[in-house]
Write a structure and sequence with these properties.
Length: about 260
């Protein structure tokens, strides 16, 4: 494991793992951390050997929000000029599937970062919310938009306007997380999910991720057209030939990402 101070990185075969490492402030997200995280994810996204990324925190917190001290003294012009959300756009544009391993608090920016991931494995201890309203602001990294698309207007309004937290079970019930696991298994289960995904065709994984994300942003007719194009494109890959041949031959496929 290599220590980049605020980010810890590790490789497990075709799985790249990054853990947020600011335990004294419950993994609060500052500009430096987001810049490093965006750069790291872009590097892995360009690496054909990386098929899945795992993003984790620690037992107490995935990330308990933005670092308030990092922006408390800024005015609107200064916030706009530093364009901190550019880093979030870089993460949004990563085509490699991202698994979030969530334990403890995923609040404010932590909830927004979780929603930038594709599969969310949550500990039963997870507490998820957008409490920015408590300090006189509102979500700004997609919290009002992604949350509403995930769980609907009524519950999103309740969370954003009152600052209430969801339990892991509530979050799963309302479609905000993918799986809830016992507290001792949140990290190992996330790695298991990532390994399963990494055993599959990496081009198909990226195309499938893109198509599901399109469903949030495009009208149905346009989404279906793009789905078909992404589906057809896979028939020009060696992985499609290998996958279907292996199925017919009743053996495990060996996907190479070509």
């Amino acid at each position: 494991m290599s220590n980049e101070s605020i980010l810890l990185t590790e490789r497990d075969g075709h799985v790249a793992i990054v853990r947020i490492n600011r335990p004294k402030v419950l993994n609060a997200l500052n500009l430096e951390l987001m810049q490093q995280l965006a750069e790291l994810m872009e590097q892995w996204d360009a690496d054909d050997d990386v098929r899945v990324i795992v993003l984790a925190g620690n037992d107490r917190a995935f990330a308990a929000g933005a670092d308030i001290g990092d922006m408390a003294e800024l005015d609107a012009a200064a916030m706009s000029e530093r364009d901190q959300f550019a880093q979030w756009e870089r993460i949004k544009n990563v085509r490699t599937p991202i698994v979030a391993a969530v334990s403890g608090f995923a609040l404010g920016g932590g909830c927004e970062l979780m929603m930038h991931c594709d599969v969310v494995v949550a500990s039963e201890t997870a507490r998820i919310g957008q409490p920015e309203i408590n300090i006189g602001v509102m979500p700004g990294a997609g919290g009002t938009q992604r949350l509403t698309r995930a769980i609907g207007k009524a519950l999103a309004m309740d969370i954003v306007l009152t600052g209430r937290f969801l339990t892991a079970a509530e979050a799963e019930r309302h479609g905000l997380v993918s799986r809830v696991v016992p507290r001792e298994h949140w990290y190992t289960e996330s790695i298991k999910v990532a390994r399963r995904m990494a055993s599959l065709g990496p081009i198909a994984l990226k195309n499938a991720k893109e198509s599901v994300l399109n469903a949030e942003e495009l009208p149905l007719t346009d989404g279906l057209k793009r789905e078909r194009r992404l589906f057809y494109d896979l028939f020009d890959t060696e992985d499609q030939t290998e996958g279907m041949t292996a199925f017919l031959e009743k053996r495990r496929p060996n996907f190479t990402g070509r």
